[in-house]
Design goal:
This protein is an alpha+beta fold. Among the domains are: 87 residues, Immunoglobulins (Immunoglobulin-like, Sandwich); 167 residues, Glucose Permease (Domain IIA). It has eight helices and 28 strands. Strands 19, 21, 22, 23, 25, 27 and 28 form a seven-stranded antiparallel β-sheet that branches. The chain has a five-stranded mixed β-sheet with strand order 8-15-14-10-11, with no helix packed on it.
Amino acid sequence: MSPRARCLLLATLLVLAVGTSVASAQEGERGPIYVVQEGDTLIAIASRFGTTVAALVEANGIADPSSIQPGMELVIPGFEGVNGVLTFHEVAFGESAAALAMAYRLPLTSFEKLNRLVIPGRLYVGQAAIVPEPVSGGPAHARTEFLKEGQGLLESAVLWDTSPWLLSGDSASLWKLAGEPAYIVGGEALPRDLPAGLEQVTLDPLPLMQGRTAVVHAVAVPGTTVGGELAGHALNLILEDSESGTWAGLQGIHALQTTGLVDFELRLQAEGVERSFLQPVRVIDGGYTRETLQVPAETIDPANTVPEDAQIAGIVSAVTTERRWFYLFQFPASYFETFPSRFGTRRSYNGSAYSYYHTGLDLYGNPKTPVLAPAPGRVVFAGPLAVRGNATYIDHGWGVYTGYLHQSEILVKPGDRVETGDTIGMVGATGRVTGAHLHWEIWVGGVPVDPLEWTERVMP
């Protein structure tokens, strides 16, 4: 396209954009409408939308501020150009503020103000974003295209048979970089800010919970390598199907993980180019209780605990790509109706603060109770430890390990292959214990998780 033609096109689009803005302003003079819910007060509504009670009273002609009722429609002042009844949209992966603003026909600044975003453009997965339902029709769908190196947006708009002013909904998108997404109105789905090469991503369950296992799935263009991080831990993603580009991985969420938002990031590499996708997800409390125990002093002495913890961390950090289990994990002992102590319980040892936590699930037993393998795997450690007593660790693949502590006897050795139900030892009272029992651990991505979850849910 010649320079003169480009100028004419841009001028025409500017005129159209100004005309559209005037029409929108005329249609949206009333402002967004909020439907009062049970328990709402004007103070709460004003706080939610960053306005004042006085402004709400004036905009709606309210005679008695204490008399609002569920079902009433209130105009929310301060959002010129925003029209429609306010509702909630659950944010999915890749749905950024810019993408949702475009879908719901809002200026980006209005969307950010409506949702009172502390960090502009940062939405977490599962967040209930406030959006206005359009007066006519639903949210705008779009298809996604990606700029190539050396390709400007004006040139791309011509190639994609659209207007640059319809890409991503605002003129700032004219300065997008190569590999960044641009949206073209008229697609089949809501626009998403997933990088080129990443077609789909899921994280289950959401929200994440302290002490539970997160399952990651991603679909990328075949030939792409996928990695990433979740809550500060490197993700061990395994290529499940090279033809479809399907990747999967597991990551434990630490029982002491601070609740709130944590970063979830995927990194894609193909043909020497790396692109990344980052979006926050929420972690909620695991609801753990407390208990106080008296144990031998040497079993909480850092001279013993620190090197032993480091030894085990080194064992469970290795990742083998062969997945050796395909069903629910079985309990490793015959008594599992009740448990002496559950995973995640905050613990005080010998009068200490509750700064410890229980890294496994305790099962009843005695030296005549066999310890059973809960799933197929390979023994990677079997021997005595100062704190854990006679211990065995099994590698099940994909960064998943199980541990069996305090045994009276160990009946396997490193390198042994075991199947579900094989006897690997006997319950005992060695190490840091108050009586005979089996302490059962499951480690995922280097983090201990609740074993009960693995007896109730097939992973992944």
